[in-house]
Write a structure and sequence with these properties.
disordered N terminus; UDP-N-acetylmuramoyl-L-alanine:D-glutamate ligase; 17 strands; Protein-Tyrosine Phosphatase, Chain A; 6-stranded mixed β-sheet; 2 domains
Length: 457
């Protein structure tokens, strides 16, 4: 179908005509990543001041927020692909990235270019400096606040109609929560970031549900009674219509090479043959949520068709999620980094047993590493633990020691490169390596594989 007119006013595309140099791009990335040292900071004051100084780019396009514990990125990728297939000019903002920072910010299916990134970072840097000088910003913005502001400015310059935005951590005080979302989704609720979000499912659900906007619809995949009760209560309090996917959508799937065929029945349509190029039962749940969201957005002026759903689902790309890379041995790379993600991976491994499977594992210090390992170890023969490329990485020796005390074959290896080589030797040519524990490790292994491929050619 043809693209509908943008329901909100857009400014002209104001990217500079002259190409910026590589040094400009390097300086932009250095500026953003230099703020990672500030860590996590809750609150909307900084991002509120930033978007105000940028003349509120988040008001120039419609927005959809995707909150939850796991599956946010997959759901956002699926929904954006469907909306784009329907002819709408789309943006997508997700985090973190696997290989390059530009992966986080996309317009019409393409990552922000180095030149475009440099241009929006320069604008945000200048605005930040002015706010600091006039003491309208009392603290330096974090990496995530700055990157979010850059994404919003980029979307305005690209004149998109709708942005699908993955909430970073929590929801209530997440920088993404300044957008006036037309629709909010909550994928699921599990234990992660308990230090910041609370140590009960109800407390975590309250933080996620704080993304619900008054009078705007909310759709959720949550099944567990405790967090679902919180979401229902918050939706009622805001006068927001609530749509529950487990109650409303019926799904059947059959795995095939490179993905799975899915049949969906929603209250509005039947989709008899959707090819989903992502594997795992949890991805069927994410698909059900994304399709339901697309249907609801049709009622809000962004129309989709069954053919757009079919085409958008088929063409979705979301790397590092049960991503299979054939070889001798084969690799399966997954970004599972918390107990809920590890449980989903374990279910997949149980359904696809392999006699010579090696787990290449690396985890952050603030994660429930032992609980994750207890879920994964029954499905592998050997464990290789390494240190992901992050200052928050957990010591490999302590992780391997936990497995060894249970009588499991395990070893600690200092670097991902050496760990990958060790895992290949243990797996042999007919074996399989599963990479899990951290998105930082998943990204590093993908980087190593790309380097190997470049060297072969």
């Amino acid at each position: 179908m043809t693209s509908r007119p943008n329901p909100l006013p857009c400014r002209k595309n104001i990217f500079p005509k002259k190409s910026l140099t590589r040094m400009d791009y390097a300086a932009a990335v250095a500026y953003l990543t230099g703020h990672e040292r500030l860590g996590i900071k809750f609150g909307l004051e900084n991002i509120g001041r930033l978007v105000e100084a940028l003349e509120h780019p988040e008001h120039d396009w419609r927005s959809i927020l995707v909150a939850g514990t796991n599956g946010k990125g997959s759901t956002a990728a699926l929904l954006e692909s469907i909306l784009r297939a329907a002819g709408h000019r789309t943006g997508r903002y997700t985090s973190p990235h696997l290989l390059r920072l530009e992966e986080r910010i996309m317009a019409e299916g393409k990552s922000i270019s180095p030149e475009e990134l440099a241009a929006v970072v320069e604008k945000v840097r200048r605005v930040t400096a002015e706010l600091r000088q006039t003491k309208k910003l009392l603290t330096e913005p974090t990496f995530f606040e700055l990157t979010t502001a850059c994404a919003f400015e980029f979307f305005r310059r690209k004149r998109i109609q709708v942005a699908v935005i993955e909430v970073g951590m929590g929801g209530r005080w997440d920088a993404t929560n300044v957008v006036p979302a037309s629709l909010t989704a909550v994928t699921n609720i599990g234990f992660d970031h308990e230090r910041f979000l609370g140590r009960t499912l109800a407390a975590i659900a309250a933080e996620k549900a704080a993304t619900i906007k008054p009078g705007r619809p909310v759709v959720t995949s949550v099944r567990e009674p405790e967090p679902l009760a919180v979401i229902r209560s918050e939706a009622a309090r805001h006068g927001s219509p609530l749509f529950e996917v487990p109650r409303d959508v019926r799904a059947r799937s059959k795995e095939v090479g490179g993905g799975q065929w899915v049949r969906l029945e929603t209250p509005e349509a039947v989709y008899p043959e959707l090819f989903l190029p992502l594997v795992g039962a949890h991805q069927v749940e994410n698909l059900s949520l994304a399709v339901r969201m697309a249907e609801l957005m049709s009622h809000l002026g962004l129309e989709t068709t069954r053919e757009a759903v079919r085409s958008g689902v088929r063409s979705v790309v979301w790397e590092g999620r049960l991503e299979r890379i054939e070889g001798a041995p084969a690799l399966t790379i997954d970004a599972a980094h918390n107990p809920m993600g590890a449980a989903a991976l374990a279910r997949y491994l149980e359904a696809h047993p392999h006699p010579h499977r090696v787990l290449l594992y690396g985890v952050m210090r603030d994660k429930q590493s032992r609980k994750m390992l207890d879920l994964l170890l029954p499905h592998v023969r050997h464990l290789i633990v390494t240190r992901p490329p992050s200052p928050r990485a957990q010591d490999p020796e302590s992780v391997a020691g936990h497995a060894a005390r249970q009588g499991f074959s395990s070893q600690a290896v200092s670097s991902p490169e050496l760990a990958l080589a060790s895992a290949r030797r243990l797996a042999g040519k007919t074996g399989e390596i599963v990479v899990a524990g951290s998105i930082f490790l998943a990204g590093e292994v993908k980087r190593l594989l790309l380097l190997e491929n470049e060297n072969r050619h």
